[in-house]
Amino acid sequence: MTSIRACLLRKRRLNRVLHTYQSRFFNSTSSLNHVGGMDANGVGTSTDTFTSKWEKSTQIRIAKNLFRHVWPSPTAASALPDRDDGKDNMYTSTITKEHADKIKRRVGYSLGLMVGGKLVTIQVPFLFKNLVDELGSVQTDVSSIEIANTFASNGMDLTSGTMAGLPVALVLGYGISRATASGMQELRNAVFAHVAQDAIRRVGRSVFEHVHKLDMTYHLNRNTGTLSRILDRGNRSISFTLNAMVFNIVPTTIEVGVVTGLMAYEFGAMHSGVVLGTIGAYTAFTVGITQWRTQFRRDMNRLENEASGKVVDSLLNYETVKYFNNEHHESQRYAESLGGYQKAALQAQTSLSLLNFGQNAIFSAGLTAIMYLTCQDIMAGQATVGDLVLVNGLLFQLSIPLNFIGSVYREVKQALIDMEAMFKLKDTKPKVLSDPDAVEYDPNLHGTAISFSDLEFGYPMPEAQVDKVTNRQILKGMTFDVREGSTTAIVGSSGGGKSTLLRMLYRFYDPDTGKITIGGHGINSLSTESVRKAIAVVPQDTVLFNESIGYNISYGDLHASKDEIIEAAKNAHIHDTIMSFPDGYDTVVGERGLKLSGGEKQRVSIARAILKKAPILLCDEPTSSLDSHTEMDIMNNLKEVGKNNTTIIIAHRLSTIQDCDEIIVLHDGKAVERGTHEELLSKGGRYNDLLKMQKQWDA
């Protein structure tokens, strides 16, 4: 009877253990797969397969660059701090030895905490096994009252006996081990977060600086919303990829090997064979399905980019939408993009569900097989119930890295897709480059005389249209000189190349043929930065930052004092207007300066050009949005400011430039006339015709 009771008790205990672990397993794997299956937004602009040569080389470059952030050195970090030759460089400035050592120490601490956490975690299943075996060793045919009486008759306290003390110690050890492992993991994340955030800051700044170095052609063809998404998602992917590189890929491989070795040592080759088979099938299935579903992620990212770009474009043109009552049209365009995104997202989610189901099925099959083998050993008397607990514990220990193999692979693939577009952006080379041996331009040393010699230029078309549309030629042998210290006006019909000349002088474009010189030096042989420092510009279309008026004026000289800002505003005849606002110079102008009128924006633009105090002043229709009275005041101020400067003024209103030192008349991409107002009138040519037409219009 006693033997039967003992067998029944062991059977009930075994069923409870199996039920507990089965429940815990399915809950854990469901949770882990849910986490692993969360799709992150990515950026992909190509429909090529992920295994293309370009993508493989990009992955290698991403890994190399990110590794330099994990283990930096002063030499590697200082490479290419200010170059704009389009070559790959994820650092924007030198990194000191102290900072590099600090990052290395943090990485070392993080790895130490990771190893410590793994060693502690691996002990948990063994502690659980010993606890179950210790509790199972109590004679099941002896009642608890009899055990208590036996202890009392011998003067022993039940709670202090060896029989009770060891299980309590094992339970405490189990709890402490789990808490310690969890604490080490969170501490590791906190320590490594500094490394990841430092990388995000450096990479983000590098790409941002590179975008600003790209030429005007790129920015005319770009979509602001899409570019913003590229930078945002690329930066967000850096942290995950770094963590995966340091804490998942290599450590997971090691953990799988350790658990498999322990399984072989404790239970034999059959058990370890099942484990290896499960790992192999799980990994192969995950890689295969993930490769297949990547195309859905790319479509999803491309369509999300389109939707984001349409939103930004529509909101930036809010007034235009209202003027033409086209809200429904804009909503319809956005809905079409969202519809395509929805279709791609559903495909991605369906394929993700298939992936998760297959992973669960493979792991469940492996769990069932290894539990069956262990139960056979128990029935044969070659293993204990504690061994069954150990098998489950080790398999659960293996389920975490197995799930990481799946989820990390998925997420790293998506992160690489996110960063591909950012790296492709880094690969975009600016078409306007400084000579490697460029000379620093010094106006005091070189002078400010400007010469345009036989310039030919046509605006480049987008790449997709190059074979279909030829470039529209703007300049056709443009030649003229601007004397140092003179005020020169450029006039002519719209589309004649007036604004293009100023953009080329500022090196937004380079001429197709011909040469521009400043102070006798070819502009290509001078440092672009030094040339731009010497030129102040009043553009035709003034766009302001969504900041205060004071900030927008100070953009001409970020180190200017408040008194200097106010003085520039007074010279631009906008000080009184600013002071009429409730917040004065702290008034925020709104996105693109839309809270200000056209004339107010133009005067802010003039104020910041005055504040720059540059020896060369370029004015592109500086008074086009002003009334006649203010126009004359502004022109007089500009002439006063530019008295000792070399000034070029583009104007449609010929009455504002009649007292300029020289007037250049453009027509059909060429300089057809030049001289003073009186000289040009006496010729009776193109300038005289323009003046007559303007007088007729004004009348």
Automatic annotation (TrEMBL):
One GO biological process this protein is involved in is: intracellular iron ion homeostasis
As one GO molecular function, the record gives: ABC-type transporter activity
Identify the SMART domains for this entry: AAA (SM00382)
Compartment(s) where it occurs, according to its Swiss-Prot or TrEMBL record: Mitochondrion membrane
An example of a Pfam family matching this protein is ABC_membrane
Major location, coarse class?
Answer: mitochondrion
Membrane-spanning parts: 107-128, 158-176, 240-265, 271-292
Task: Enumerate the InterPro entries for this protein.
Answer: AAA+_ATPase, ABC1_TM_dom, ABC1_TM_sf, ABC_transporter-like_ATP-bd, ABC_transporter-like_CS, P-loop_NTPase, Type_1_exporter
This protein's UniProt keywords: ATP-binding, Membrane, Nucleotide-binding, Transmembrane, Transmembrane helix, Transport
Gene3D superfamilies the record matches: ABC transporter type 1, transmembrane domain, P-loop containing nucleotide triphosphate hydrolases
Q: How does it sit in the membrane?
A: Multi-pass membrane protein
For this entry, the protein name equals Uncharacterized protein
